[in-house]
Write a structure and sequence with these properties.
With about 290 residues, the protein is an alpha/beta fold. Among the domains are: about 1-80 and about 195-230, Rossmann fold (3-Layer(aba) Sandwich), CATH 3.40.50.300; about 245-280, no CATH class. It is about 35% helix and about 20% strand. It has nine helices and ten strands. Strands 6-7-8-3-9-10 form a six-stranded mixed β-sheet, with helices on both faces. Strands 2-1-4-5 form a four-stranded antiparallel β-sheet. A hairpin with a 6-residue loop joins strand 1 (about 10-20) and strand 2 (about 25-35). Helix 2 crosses helix 3 and helix 4 (about 145-155) runs parallel beside helix 5 (about 175-190). It is globular. The protein starts with 7 loop residues before the first strand and ends in a 6-residue tail after the last helix. Bound molecules: adenosine-5'-diphosphate (ADP) and magnesium ion (MG).
Length: about 290
């Protein structure tokens, strides 16, 4: 059986930019290769200036590679039809602030050739998907950063793409807003949509991505399945609810009798500050 076509295939991508300083060249992306299979959620992480946006722009055909190649579902990114199946949320999406949420989506829907009832239905469906039905007739000028990112995500979904590319989807968004965006990304995954996102916010990537690449100064320094990358290979975790002190001492004694195993730590698992914050600010709605 033939292997499925990757949703994203970046091979040996190099991108140089001319700098204004003595016309020197700056290597923004240095021999990066990424393969994302259909249905995966892939997170590219790295500090600011490490080449994440440039990699995404090359994949979208918005900048031409200096060398190497990019393809989307087997179609070279330099060909226009490679973009048929892609939705893109740029780093700083620009919207007309006088249009309402619904009007914005209608505008983009029309650009994609939708009209009549199909357009109306699609706009309503997308507003429901991103949970902005209540704000559909409000002008974007009054939207929060998180709401704008969600309208941006809805815009990226307008032509029912199989691949969605999100550049820093939660940058500048508060924790509650970030959680909504993460839930949305998980919804996309449930629908089988491939997601390629980049971020410098590590925790958020950890919560949604199944594959991760770490890029630093234009180079891919580590890549793989998230679970493999963060597993501590030689340790095992047992989490017990309502354990009595006797039970703990029995388990401790049992491990103590082993000639090979040793107890590293017992104690209470910690929640993250972010989860605590969300719990306290959403009145127990989320945990
Ligand atoms: N159009 C451009 N012209 C010149 N330099 C650029 C251009 N776009 C990006 N760069 C430079 O390339 C490097 C990588 O940028 P970028 O891909 O935006 O990083 P990231 O998205 O990880 O923050 C940076 O040093 C940036 O200044
Ligand atoms: Mg960027």
């Amino acid at each position: 059986m033939a292997a499925p076509t990757p949703a994203v295939e970046i091979k040996g991508l190099v991108k140089d930019f001319k700098t204004s300083f003595r016309r020197q060249m700056l290597r923004a992306v240095d021999d990066v290769s990424i393969r994302i299979m259909p249905g995966e959620v892939y997170g590219l992480i790295g500090p600011n200036g490490s080449g994440k946006s440039t990699t995404m722009k090359a994949l979208l055909g918005l900048v031409a590679p200096t060398s190497g190649s990019c393809a989307i579902f087997g179609k070279d990114s330099l060909k226009v039809d490679s973009r048929n199946d892609v939705g893109f949320l740029p780093e700083n999406p620009y919207f007309y602030k006088h249009l309402s949420g619904a009007e914005t989506l209608r505008f983009y829907g029309k650009l994609c050739g939708l009209k009549g009832k199909r357009l109306d239905d699609r706009v309503s469906e997308l507003l429901a998907l991103v949970d902005l039905e209540n704000a559909r007739d409000r002008r974007l000028g009054g939207y929060s950063k998180g709401m704008l990112q969600r309208i941006g995500l809805a815009q990226a979904m307008i032509q029912e793409p199989r691949l969605v590319i999100l550049d820093e989807p939660t940058a500048g968004v508060d924790p509650v807003g970030s959680r909504q965006i993460r839930d949305l990304i998980l919804k996309l995954r449930e629908r089988g949509i491939t997601v390629f996102l980049c971020s410098h916010l590590l925790e958020q990537v950890q919560e949604v991505c199944d594959h991760v690449g770490i890029i630093f100064r234009g180079k891919m320094v580590k890549e793989g399945r998230l679970d493999d990358l963060i597993a501590i290979e030689d340790q095992t975790e047992i989490i017990i609810k309502d354990a009595s002190p006797e039970l703990i001492s029995q388990i401790t004694a049992l491990v103590g009798n082993s000639t090979t195993a040793s107890l590293v730590r017992t104690g209470k698992p910690r929640t993250t500050l972010e989860r605590l914050f969300l719990r306290e600010t959403t009145q127990g709605k989320d945990s």
